[in-house]
Amino acid sequence: MKAYVQVYTGEGKGKTTAAIGLAIRAIGAGKKVLFLQFMKSKVYSEHNILPSLTNLTLETVGKPFFISKEGMKSKEELAKWGDEVVVFESGNPPKDYVALIEKGYNRALEAIQSGDYDLVILDEYNMALFFELVSWKQTEQLLKARNLQTELVFTGRGAPQELIDAADLVTEMKEIKHYYLQGVMARKGIES
């Protein structure tokens, strides 16, 4: 069976959730899955169940701190975050964060070449691209190095046009209405 490249992007909720659903479907069919999360730590509810599933490997490339590009957020928004966010000039992301993401990138490269997995999901990879923690050149290497029997999925907001063009399937999650606007924060088991 031919494998494809998929992208789940957009401003709406559901990108990681869709990828988890795909992973469940794949392991239900006896396939081996690597679910590699970028820019996340093990604080989400899926971390309580996914590691117990046969044929699924869950790994995270942690989130040492929140980051934001200069000019991306207003002074008022940044004041709310206080010391919890590191603001960087475009083209100069925090080196320690880049080094951490590099480990995840190398793991992804190894996994998609190995043939050990039928499905490799790179959760929030698009955000790592947006924040310049990985480059488009590195992403092209991933696409070229992929074992053609390995389905590859990229999730996260802001997928660049180059990735959209390279993919075989692109789904955009579009927010129409969200209870966040009413002040409802992330709910355990639903958003986190």
Written description of the protein model:
The protein is 33% helix and 20% strand. By secondary structure, it is α/β, with parallel strands linked by helices. It has a six-stranded parallel β-sheet, sandwiched between helices. Helix 2 (75-81) links the parallel strand 4 (66-69) and strand 5. The chain is globular and about 50 Å long.
Provide the fold topology.
Elements: E1 5-9, H1 15-28, E2 33-38, E3 56-61, E4 66-69, H2 75-81, E5 85-88, H3 95-114, E6 119-123, H4 125-130, H5 136-145, E7 151-155, H6 161-166, E8 169-172
Parallel strand pairs: 1-7, 1-8, 2-3, 2-6, 4-5, 6-7
Short description:
This protein is α/β, with parallel strands linked by helices and 192 residues long. Helix content is 33%, strand content 20%.
Provide key terms for this protein.
single chain, alpha/beta, 6-stranded parallel beta sheet
H/E series: EHEEEHEHEHHEHE
Q: Write out the strand line-up for the largest beta sheet, numbering strands in chain order.
A: 3-2-6-7-1-8
* Structure classification: alpha/beta
Q: Major sheet: size, sense and barrel closure?
A: 6 strands, parallel
Query: Which bin fits the share of residues in helices?
Result: 25-40%
**Shape, per Cα inertia axes:** globular
Distance between the termini: 34 Å
